[in-house]
Amino acid sequence: MTTSLDAGPTRVLSLSAAALVVLVAEPLYLLVDTAVVGRLGALPLGALAVGAVVLAQVSSLGTFLAYGTTARAARAFGAGHRDRAVAEGVAATWLALFAGIAVVVLGQLIARPVADALGGGGVLADEAVDWMRIALFGAPGILVAMAGNGWMRGVQSTRAPVVVVLAGNGASAIACPVLVHGVGLGLEGSAIANVGAQTVVLLLFVGALVRETTRLGVTLRPVGADLRAQLGLGRDLLLRSLAFQACFLSATAVCARFGASSVAAHQVVLQLWTFMATVLDSLAIAAQQLVGAALGASATSSARTVTRRVTWYGIALGTVAGLVFAALAGVLPRVFTPDPTVLATIPAAWWFFVALQPIAGFVFALDGVLLGAADAAFLRRLTLGCALVGFLPAIWASLAFGWGLAGVWAGLSLFMLGRAVGVGLRARGDRWMVAGTGAAAGSATGQA
Protein backbone atom coordinates (compact mmCIF):
# COMPACT_ATOMS: atom_id res chain seq x y z
CA MET A 1 0.00 0.00 0.00
CA THR A 2 1.33 3.47 -0.88
CA THR A 3 0.45 6.83 0.53
CA SER A 4 0.71 10.36 -0.81
CA LEU A 5 3.48 12.56 0.58
CA ASP A 6 2.34 15.57 -1.43
CA ALA A 7 3.06 18.64 0.72
CA GLY A 8 2.17 21.24 -1.90
CA PRO A 9 -0.04 24.26 -1.14
CA THR A 10 -3.15 22.58 -2.54
CA ARG A 11 -2.73 19.52 -0.32
CA VAL A 12 -1.97 21.62 2.78
CA LEU A 13 -4.96 23.85 2.21
CA SER A 14 -7.34 20.98 1.40
CA LEU A 15 -6.45 19.16 4.62
CA SER A 16 -6.69 22.43 6.54
CA ALA A 17 -10.11 23.20 5.07
CA ALA A 18 -11.48 19.80 6.08
CA ALA A 19 -9.98 20.14 9.56
CA LEU A 20 -11.35 23.68 9.84
CA VAL A 21 -14.94 22.54 9.38
CA VAL A 22 -14.52 19.95 12.13
CA LEU A 23 -12.62 22.26 14.46
CA VAL A 24 -14.97 25.25 14.22
CA ALA A 25 -18.17 23.22 14.60
CA GLU A 26 -17.88 22.96 18.39
CA PRO A 27 -16.74 26.58 19.01
CA LEU A 28 -19.49 27.81 16.66
CA TYR A 29 -22.01 25.85 18.68
CA LEU A 30 -20.57 27.35 21.89
CA LEU A 31 -20.85 30.82 20.38
CA VAL A 32 -24.50 30.10 19.55
CA ASP A 33 -24.93 28.76 23.08
CA THR A 34 -23.33 31.91 24.52
CA ALA A 35 -25.59 34.16 22.44
CA VAL A 36 -28.73 32.18 23.37
CA VAL A 37 -27.93 32.10 27.09
CA GLY A 38 -26.75 35.72 27.00
CA ARG A 39 -30.36 36.75 26.35
CA LEU A 40 -31.22 35.39 29.80
CA GLY A 41 -28.99 38.00 31.49
CA ALA A 42 -25.56 38.42 33.07
CA LEU A 43 -26.06 35.83 35.82
CA PRO A 44 -26.92 32.84 33.56
CA LEU A 45 -24.14 33.90 31.15
CA GLY A 46 -21.68 34.03 34.04
CA ALA A 47 -22.85 30.60 35.22
CA LEU A 48 -22.37 29.25 31.70
CA ALA A 49 -18.84 30.68 31.73
CA VAL A 50 -18.03 28.75 34.92
CA GLY A 51 -19.64 25.52 33.72
CA ALA A 52 -18.29 25.69 30.17
CA VAL A 53 -14.69 26.17 31.28
CA VAL A 54 -15.00 22.98 33.35
CA LEU A 55 -16.42 21.04 30.39
CA ALA A 56 -13.64 22.43 28.22
CA GLN A 57 -11.16 20.75 30.52
CA VAL A 58 -12.59 17.38 29.46
CA SER A 59 -11.55 18.15 25.90
CA SER A 60 -8.20 19.45 27.09
CA LEU A 61 -7.55 16.29 29.12
CA GLY A 62 -8.39 14.23 26.07
CA THR A 63 -5.99 16.09 23.79
CA PHE A 64 -3.70 13.07 23.60
CA LEU A 65 -6.58 11.07 22.10
CA ALA A 66 -6.62 13.38 19.09
CA TYR A 67 -3.04 14.60 18.74
CA GLY A 68 -1.29 11.46 19.98
CA THR A 69 -3.45 9.24 17.79
CA THR A 70 -2.88 11.45 14.76
CA ALA A 71 0.90 11.29 15.23
CA ARG A 72 0.98 7.50 15.59
CA ALA A 73 -1.61 6.79 12.90
CA ALA A 74 0.00 9.20 10.41
CA ARG A 75 3.39 7.50 10.76
CA ALA A 76 1.83 4.08 10.15
CA PHE A 77 -0.13 5.46 7.21
CA GLY A 78 2.99 7.12 5.77
CA ALA A 79 4.79 3.77 5.95
CA GLY A 80 1.93 2.11 4.05
CA HIS A 81 0.23 0.32 6.98
CA ARG A 82 -3.36 1.56 7.06
CA ASP A 83 -4.43 -1.39 9.22
CA ARG A 84 -1.98 -0.32 11.94
CA ALA A 85 -3.24 3.25 11.68
CA VAL A 86 -6.83 2.06 12.25
CA ALA A 87 -5.68 -0.13 15.15
CA GLU A 88 -4.46 3.08 16.79
CA GLY A 89 -8.03 4.35 16.43
CA VAL A 90 -9.39 1.26 18.19
CA ALA A 91 -7.03 1.75 21.14
CA ALA A 92 -7.82 5.47 21.37
CA THR A 93 -11.58 4.83 21.28
CA TRP A 94 -11.40 2.33 24.15
CA LEU A 95 -9.36 4.81 26.18
CA ALA A 96 -11.93 7.50 25.37
CA LEU A 97 -14.82 5.35 26.60
CA PHE A 98 -13.04 4.38 29.82
CA ALA A 99 -12.05 7.98 30.54
CA GLY A 100 -15.48 9.36 29.60
CA ILE A 101 -17.31 7.11 32.03
CA ALA A 102 -14.86 8.04 34.78
CA VAL A 103 -15.44 11.75 34.11
CA VAL A 104 -19.22 11.34 34.35
CA VAL A 105 -19.00 9.57 37.70
CA LEU A 106 -16.35 11.83 39.19
CA GLY A 107 -18.01 14.95 37.83
CA GLN A 108 -21.25 14.32 39.68
CA LEU A 109 -19.30 14.03 42.93
CA ILE A 110 -17.18 17.16 42.60
CA ALA A 111 -19.51 19.48 40.64
CA ARG A 112 -20.54 21.44 43.74
CA PRO A 113 -17.07 22.15 45.19
CA VAL A 114 -15.71 22.97 41.74
CA ALA A 115 -18.56 25.38 41.02
CA ASP A 116 -18.08 27.03 44.42
CA ALA A 117 -14.34 27.36 43.87
CA LEU A 118 -14.65 28.86 40.39
CA GLY A 119 -17.83 30.84 40.89
CA GLY A 120 -17.12 32.15 44.37
CA GLY A 121 -20.24 30.51 45.82
CA GLY A 122 -23.73 32.01 45.88
CA VAL A 123 -26.35 32.05 43.14
CA LEU A 124 -23.76 32.04 40.33
CA ALA A 125 -22.31 28.75 41.59
CA ASP A 126 -25.81 27.28 42.10
CA GLU A 127 -26.72 27.83 38.46
CA ALA A 128 -23.32 26.64 37.25
CA VAL A 129 -23.48 23.34 39.13
CA ASP A 130 -26.92 22.52 37.69
CA TRP A 131 -25.57 23.09 34.17
CA MET A 132 -22.40 21.08 34.82
CA ARG A 133 -24.15 18.00 36.22
CA ILE A 134 -26.18 17.64 33.04
CA ALA A 135 -23.50 18.64 30.54
CA LEU A 136 -20.91 16.19 31.93
CA PHE A 137 -22.96 13.28 30.57
CA GLY A 138 -21.61 14.34 27.18
CA ALA A 139 -18.01 13.56 28.25
CA PRO A 140 -17.82 10.09 26.59
CA GLY A 141 -18.98 11.61 23.32
CA ILE A 142 -16.45 14.45 23.54
CA LEU A 143 -13.57 12.03 24.08
CA VAL A 144 -14.69 9.46 21.48
CA ALA A 145 -14.94 12.31 18.95
CA MET A 146 -11.35 13.29 19.70
CA ALA A 147 -10.19 9.71 19.20
CA GLY A 148 -12.21 9.43 15.98
CA ASN A 149 -10.81 12.63 14.57
CA GLY A 150 -7.32 11.48 15.55
CA TRP A 151 -7.25 8.24 13.58
CA MET A 152 -9.19 9.69 10.64
CA ARG A 153 -6.71 12.54 10.35
CA GLY A 154 -3.90 10.02 10.52
CA VAL A 155 -5.18 8.20 7.43
CA GLN A 156 -5.94 11.59 5.80
CA SER A 157 -9.69 10.99 5.68
CA THR A 158 -11.37 14.35 5.18
CA ARG A 159 -15.07 13.84 4.44
CA ALA A 160 -16.24 11.51 7.23
CA PRO A 161 -15.23 13.70 10.22
CA VAL A 162 -16.97 16.68 8.63
CA VAL A 163 -20.24 14.78 8.19
CA VAL A 164 -20.16 13.37 11.73
CA VAL A 165 -19.38 16.61 13.55
CA LEU A 166 -21.78 18.75 11.53
CA ALA A 167 -24.59 16.27 12.12
CA GLY A 168 -24.21 16.39 15.89
CA ASN A 169 -23.49 20.07 16.39
CA GLY A 170 -25.96 21.23 13.75
CA ALA A 171 -28.83 19.42 15.46
CA SER A 172 -27.78 20.81 18.81
CA ALA A 173 -27.52 24.39 17.53
CA ILE A 174 -31.17 24.10 16.48
CA ALA A 175 -32.23 22.45 19.73
CA CYS A 176 -30.47 24.94 22.03
CA PRO A 177 -32.69 28.03 21.47
CA VAL A 178 -35.79 25.82 21.40
CA LEU A 179 -34.99 24.23 24.77
CA VAL A 180 -33.68 27.41 26.43
CA HIS A 181 -36.34 29.89 25.28
CA GLY A 182 -39.05 27.94 23.45
CA VAL A 183 -39.62 25.17 25.99
CA GLY A 184 -38.53 27.44 28.83
CA LEU A 185 -35.84 25.24 30.37
CA GLY A 186 -33.45 28.17 30.65
CA LEU A 187 -29.80 27.41 31.32
CA GLU A 188 -30.45 23.69 31.78
CA GLY A 189 -31.81 23.51 28.21
CA SER A 190 -28.36 24.54 27.00
CA ALA A 191 -26.77 21.60 28.85
CA ILE A 192 -29.33 19.12 27.47
CA ALA A 193 -28.67 20.28 23.90
CA ASN A 194 -24.94 19.86 24.49
CA VAL A 195 -25.34 16.26 25.67
CA GLY A 196 -27.56 15.47 22.69
CA ALA A 197 -24.89 16.66 20.26
CA GLN A 198 -22.13 14.62 21.89
CA THR A 199 -24.26 11.45 21.95
CA VAL A 200 -24.97 11.68 18.22
CA VAL A 201 -21.28 12.23 17.48
CA LEU A 202 -20.25 9.26 19.65
CA LEU A 203 -22.58 6.88 17.82
CA LEU A 204 -21.46 8.05 14.38
CA PHE A 205 -17.73 7.80 15.12
CA VAL A 206 -18.08 4.33 16.65
CA GLY A 207 -20.07 3.23 13.60
CA ALA A 208 -17.33 4.49 11.25
CA LEU A 209 -14.65 2.65 13.24
CA VAL A 210 -16.61 -0.62 13.15
CA ARG A 211 -16.96 -0.40 9.37
CA GLU A 212 -13.25 0.32 8.86
CA THR A 213 -12.05 -2.47 11.15
CA THR A 214 -14.37 -4.93 9.45
CA ARG A 215 -13.05 -3.97 6.01
CA LEU A 216 -9.39 -4.26 7.05
CA GLY A 217 -9.72 -7.24 9.39
CA VAL A 218 -8.58 -5.28 12.46
CA THR A 219 -9.79 -6.50 15.85
CA LEU A 220 -12.13 -4.31 17.86
CA ARG A 221 -10.96 -5.79 21.13
CA PRO A 222 -8.68 -3.62 23.29
CA VAL A 223 -5.04 -4.65 22.77
CA GLY A 224 -2.83 -4.05 25.80
CA ALA A 225 0.29 -3.14 23.83
CA ASP A 226 -1.58 -0.53 21.79
CA LEU A 227 -3.21 0.96 24.89
CA ARG A 228 0.17 1.25 26.63
CA ALA A 229 1.78 2.86 23.59
CA GLN A 230 -1.04 5.40 23.36
CA LEU A 231 -0.68 6.21 27.05
CA GLY A 232 3.10 6.55 26.72
CA LEU A 233 2.80 9.35 24.18
CA GLY A 234 -0.28 10.66 25.95
CA ARG A 235 1.60 11.24 29.22
CA ASP A 236 3.41 14.31 27.95
CA LEU A 237 0.35 15.61 26.13
CA LEU A 238 -1.73 15.13 29.27
CA LEU A 239 0.72 17.07 31.43
CA ARG A 240 0.73 19.81 28.79
CA SER A 241 -3.07 19.87 28.90
CA LEU A 242 -3.02 20.13 32.69
CA ALA A 243 -0.92 23.28 32.37
CA PHE A 244 -3.53 24.79 30.06
CA GLN A 245 -6.28 23.80 32.47
CA ALA A 246 -4.55 25.34 35.48
CA CYS A 247 -4.20 28.60 33.58
CA PHE A 248 -7.71 28.90 32.17
CA LEU A 249 -9.44 27.64 35.32
CA SER A 250 -7.46 30.17 37.33
CA ALA A 251 -8.40 32.91 34.88
CA THR A 252 -12.11 32.13 35.22
CA ALA A 253 -11.86 31.89 39.01
CA VAL A 254 -10.15 35.28 39.23
CA CYS A 255 -12.63 36.91 36.82
CA ALA A 256 -15.53 35.53 38.88
CA ARG A 257 -14.14 37.31 41.93
CA PHE A 258 -14.30 40.61 40.10
CA GLY A 259 -18.09 40.11 39.69
CA ALA A 260 -20.64 38.67 37.25
CA SER A 261 -19.95 41.34 34.63
CA SER A 262 -16.22 40.56 34.51
CA VAL A 263 -16.65 36.81 34.23
CA ALA A 264 -19.39 37.27 31.61
CA ALA A 265 -17.13 39.59 29.58
CA HIS A 266 -14.31 37.08 29.93
CA GLN A 267 -16.67 34.36 28.65
CA VAL A 268 -17.50 36.31 25.49
CA VAL A 269 -13.88 37.11 24.59
CA LEU A 270 -12.65 33.65 25.64
CA GLN A 271 -15.17 31.95 23.35
CA LEU A 272 -13.97 34.12 20.46
CA TRP A 273 -10.38 33.23 21.40
CA THR A 274 -11.32 29.54 21.40
CA PHE A 275 -13.04 29.93 18.04
CA MET A 276 -9.99 31.58 16.49
CA ALA A 277 -7.67 29.03 18.10
CA THR A 278 -9.54 26.30 16.27
CA VAL A 279 -9.46 28.22 12.99
CA LEU A 280 -5.70 28.66 13.27
CA ASP A 281 -5.33 25.09 14.50
CA SER A 282 -6.66 23.81 11.16
CA LEU A 283 -3.19 24.49 9.75
CA ALA A 284 -1.69 22.64 12.69
CA ILE A 285 -3.88 19.62 11.92
CA ALA A 286 -2.66 19.60 8.31
CA ALA A 287 0.91 19.86 9.58
CA GLN A 288 0.39 16.91 11.95
CA GLN A 289 -0.97 14.75 9.16
CA LEU A 290 1.69 15.62 6.60
CA VAL A 291 4.69 15.78 8.95
CA GLY A 292 3.72 12.46 10.57
CA ALA A 293 3.30 10.75 7.21
CA ALA A 294 6.53 12.25 5.85
CA LEU A 295 8.60 11.16 8.85
CA GLY A 296 6.97 7.72 8.78
CA ALA A 297 8.20 7.40 5.20
CA SER A 298 11.61 8.92 6.16
CA ALA A 299 10.99 11.91 3.86
CA THR A 300 12.54 14.61 6.07
CA SER A 301 12.74 17.18 3.28
CA SER A 302 8.95 17.03 2.92
CA ALA A 303 8.60 17.58 6.67
CA ARG A 304 10.77 20.70 6.43
CA THR A 305 8.75 22.01 3.49
CA VAL A 306 5.49 21.60 5.40
CA THR A 307 7.03 23.45 8.36
CA ARG A 308 7.93 26.52 6.32
CA ARG A 309 4.62 26.58 4.49
CA VAL A 310 2.27 26.29 7.46
CA THR A 311 4.27 28.83 9.48
CA TRP A 312 3.76 31.55 6.89
CA TYR A 313 0.13 30.57 6.40
CA GLY A 314 -0.44 30.79 10.15
CA ILE A 315 1.11 34.26 10.44
CA ALA A 316 -0.90 35.53 7.46
CA LEU A 317 -4.19 34.10 8.72
CA GLY A 318 -3.60 35.47 12.22
CA THR A 319 -2.82 38.93 10.88
CA VAL A 320 -6.02 39.04 8.81
CA ALA A 321 -8.03 37.84 11.82
CA GLY A 322 -6.55 40.56 14.04
CA LEU A 323 -7.49 43.26 11.54
CA VAL A 324 -11.04 41.92 11.20
CA PHE A 325 -11.64 41.76 14.96
CA ALA A 326 -10.18 45.25 15.41
CA ALA A 327 -12.70 46.57 12.89
CA LEU A 328 -15.59 44.76 14.63
CA ALA A 329 -14.72 45.93 18.17
CA GLY A 330 -17.82 48.09 18.46
CA VAL A 331 -20.22 45.64 16.87
CA LEU A 332 -19.42 41.99 17.56
CA PRO A 333 -19.72 41.96 21.39
CA ARG A 334 -23.34 43.12 21.08
CA VAL A 335 -24.17 39.88 19.27
CA PHE A 336 -23.51 37.97 22.48
CA THR A 337 -25.05 40.19 25.15
CA PRO A 338 -27.11 43.39 25.44
CA ASP A 339 -26.06 43.89 29.07
CA PRO A 340 -24.43 47.36 29.33
CA THR A 341 -22.12 46.43 32.22
CA VAL A 342 -20.76 43.42 30.35
CA LEU A 343 -20.29 45.47 27.16
CA ALA A 344 -18.41 48.13 29.12
CA THR A 345 -16.03 45.50 30.55
CA ILE A 346 -15.24 43.62 27.32
CA PRO A 347 -12.71 46.17 25.90
CA ALA A 348 -10.31 45.39 28.78
CA ALA A 349 -9.74 41.96 27.18
CA TRP A 350 -10.63 42.74 23.58
CA TRP A 351 -7.44 44.50 22.46
CA PHE A 352 -5.21 41.83 23.95
CA PHE A 353 -7.25 39.31 21.97
CA VAL A 354 -6.79 41.31 18.76
CA ALA A 355 -3.04 41.82 19.16
CA LEU A 356 -2.39 38.14 19.91
CA GLN A 357 -3.86 36.77 16.66
CA PRO A 358 -0.65 36.83 14.49
CA ILE A 359 1.37 35.38 17.39
CA ALA A 360 -1.22 32.65 17.86
CA GLY A 361 -1.06 31.80 14.15
CA PHE A 362 2.71 31.29 14.41
CA VAL A 363 2.52 29.26 17.63
CA PHE A 364 -0.31 26.95 16.60
CA ALA A 365 1.25 26.18 13.22
CA LEU A 366 4.54 25.08 14.79
CA ASP A 367 2.69 23.24 17.55
CA GLY A 368 1.17 21.14 14.77
CA VAL A 369 4.55 20.44 13.22
CA LEU A 370 6.07 19.29 16.50
CA LEU A 371 2.99 17.26 17.46
CA GLY A 372 3.11 15.51 14.10
CA ALA A 373 6.73 14.64 14.88
CA ALA A 374 5.64 13.27 18.31
CA ASP A 375 7.89 15.85 19.98
CA ALA A 376 5.48 15.95 22.91
CA ALA A 377 8.08 16.03 25.70
CA PHE A 378 9.49 19.35 24.45
CA LEU A 379 6.00 20.86 24.10
CA ARG A 380 5.14 19.69 27.61
CA ARG A 381 8.23 21.36 29.10
CA LEU A 382 7.66 24.56 27.15
CA THR A 383 4.00 24.84 28.11
CA LEU A 384 4.64 24.15 31.79
CA GLY A 385 7.48 26.67 31.86
CA CYS A 386 5.47 29.43 30.20
CA ALA A 387 2.50 28.76 32.47
CA LEU A 388 4.57 28.90 35.65
CA VAL A 389 6.64 31.93 34.63
CA GLY A 390 4.08 33.98 32.68
CA PHE A 391 0.38 33.13 32.78
CA LEU A 392 -0.25 31.99 36.37
CA PRO A 393 1.77 34.72 38.16
CA ALA A 394 0.02 37.43 36.12
CA ILE A 395 -3.44 35.97 36.83
CA TRP A 396 -3.00 35.88 40.59
CA ALA A 397 -1.21 39.24 40.64
CA SER A 398 -4.25 40.62 38.86
CA LEU A 399 -6.41 39.47 41.76
CA ALA A 400 -3.98 40.69 44.42
CA PHE A 401 -3.48 44.16 42.93
CA GLY A 402 -6.93 44.67 41.41
CA TRP A 403 -5.82 44.76 37.78
CA GLY A 404 -9.08 43.20 36.67
CA LEU A 405 -9.74 41.56 33.33
CA ALA A 406 -6.82 43.39 31.70
CA GLY A 407 -4.38 41.69 34.07
CA VAL A 408 -5.75 38.26 33.23
CA TRP A 409 -5.33 38.82 29.49
CA ALA A 410 -1.88 40.31 29.99
CA GLY A 411 -0.99 36.94 31.54
CA LEU A 412 -2.28 35.14 28.46
CA SER A 413 -0.11 37.43 26.32
CA LEU A 414 3.03 36.51 28.28
CA PHE A 415 2.11 32.85 27.92
CA MET A 416 1.78 33.09 24.14
CA LEU A 417 4.95 35.12 23.67
CA GLY A 418 6.99 32.59 25.63
CA ARG A 419 5.61 29.71 23.58
CA ALA A 420 6.34 31.59 20.34
CA VAL A 421 10.01 31.94 21.23
CA GLY A 422 10.23 28.29 22.27
CA VAL A 423 8.61 26.66 19.24
CA GLY A 424 10.40 29.01 16.86
CA LEU A 425 13.82 28.02 18.17
CA ARG A 426 12.92 24.30 18.23
CA ALA A 427 11.65 24.29 14.65
CA ARG A 428 14.88 25.87 13.37
CA GLY A 429 16.84 22.80 14.46
CA ASP A 430 16.63 19.14 13.44
CA ARG A 431 16.25 17.27 16.72
CA TRP A 432 12.48 16.91 16.30
CA MET A 433 12.83 15.25 12.86
CA VAL A 434 13.05 11.60 13.95
CA ALA A 435 12.21 9.39 10.95
CA GLY A 436 10.56 5.97 10.96
CA THR A 437 7.40 4.42 12.42
CA GLY A 438 8.97 3.64 15.79
CA ALA A 439 9.50 7.28 16.68
CA ALA A 440 5.84 7.82 17.43
CA ALA A 441 6.04 5.28 20.19
CA GLY A 442 8.34 7.47 22.15
CA SER A 443 11.82 8.04 20.74
CA ALA A 444 11.03 11.58 19.68
CA THR A 445 9.35 12.40 22.93
CA GLY A 446 12.36 11.28 24.88
CA GLN A 447 14.70 13.84 23.40
CA ALA A 448 15.89 16.83 25.36
UniProtKB/TrEMBL annotation:
This is Putative MATE family efflux protein. Belongs to the multi antimicrobial extrusion (MATE) (TC 2.A.66.1) family. GO terms for molecular function: antiporter activity; xenobiotic transmembrane transporter activity. It is found in: Membrane. GO terms for cellular component: plasma membrane. InterPro entries: DinF-like, MATE_fam. The chain crosses the membrane at residues 12-32, 44-68, 89-111, 131-151, 163-185, 191-210, 237-260, 272-298, 310-336, 348-370, 382-401, 407-425. It holds the Pfam family MatE. It comes from Actinomycetospora corticicola. It comes from the Bacteria.
